[in-house]
Amino acid sequence: MKITDIMKERMSLSFEVFPPKMEQPLEPLLETIEDLYKFKPDFISCTYGAGGTNAGRNVEICKYIEEGKKSIPVTHYTCIGNQKDNIKDDMRNYLDLGIDHILAMRGDFPKGWTETRGDFDYANELVKFIRENFPEFQIAIAANPEKHIQSPSFDSDIAHLRNKQDMGGDLIMTQLCYDVDHYEWWVDRIRKAGIHLPIDVGVMPVLSKDPTIRMAVSNGSAVPRELAEVIGKYGDNPEDFKKAGKEYTVNLIHKFMTAGIDGLHIYTLNKSQDVTDILHAAGFPSY
Ligand code: FAD
Asked: How far is ligand 1, taken at its centre, from the CA of residue 141, in Å?
């Protein structure tokens, strides 16, 4: 089953998890994944550390999900430090393990780097390479509704997104965005630019003050008035902040669903209890 087939029928529900560091045990994350299965997620994506860090664990996690047969694993993969030969080996390895969905990205540069130090400079080249050499993959591409922070303009960023579609992308997975009005404006802009792919919207739960601000600001994302209010009112009290942040996240999910989205992708931060609270409050059943 391909993710885009699911999205043709209904809104998909999915989760993002990140692998532990090599020296840390896998078990807590495996328990988190088992717990998340109660929502019958259509897929679970696993991040891929920049510069190859945690790449080994990424494969272990995707393999675990594939073998569990309860959800589709989607591996993240980047151009950082990767050459054509080792990309081919990695792709073959994923396919041998039954992992045939990939989010193909450029990746963020590790500290001190100004380029990918690999064979590809941008995601569109990686997408083209995978599409040409490994047609079995369903390929997701990353997009930022508020414009990628390094991009000089929306026009330029959207043209590059169109290019990733034309090189073989099958669906879009978005960066966090707290401003749903802006998201709708962006969808209109990309549709007018000929980008027709289904859009899986990433929602970052609001759980604690500093990470919320840091993640928004590092992506150049807006902090809308309602979220600023949560930060201003409850920022000094972690418990109250989390309660208000969860309510804010539930509202955000409802706003996105009202706007009309093809998929809802929760960045779980590996916190299954908080995600459970949010999804139950948003009306999603668990089994
Ligand atoms: P690109 O599409 O290559 O774009 C990068 C920048 O270059 C943009 O400004 C774009 O406008 C511009 N551009 C694109 N093509 C060209 C071109 N041909 N010529 C000139 N300029 C161009 N990072 C990780 O390291 N690991 C992860 O697991 C990970 N998971 C993510 C999951 C999601 C859902 C998202 C949205 C992002 C994730 N990221 C991850 C972050 C991502 O790697 C960064 O946003 C990265 O900075 C850009 O990746 P990209 O694939 O969008 O790059």
From this structure: 9
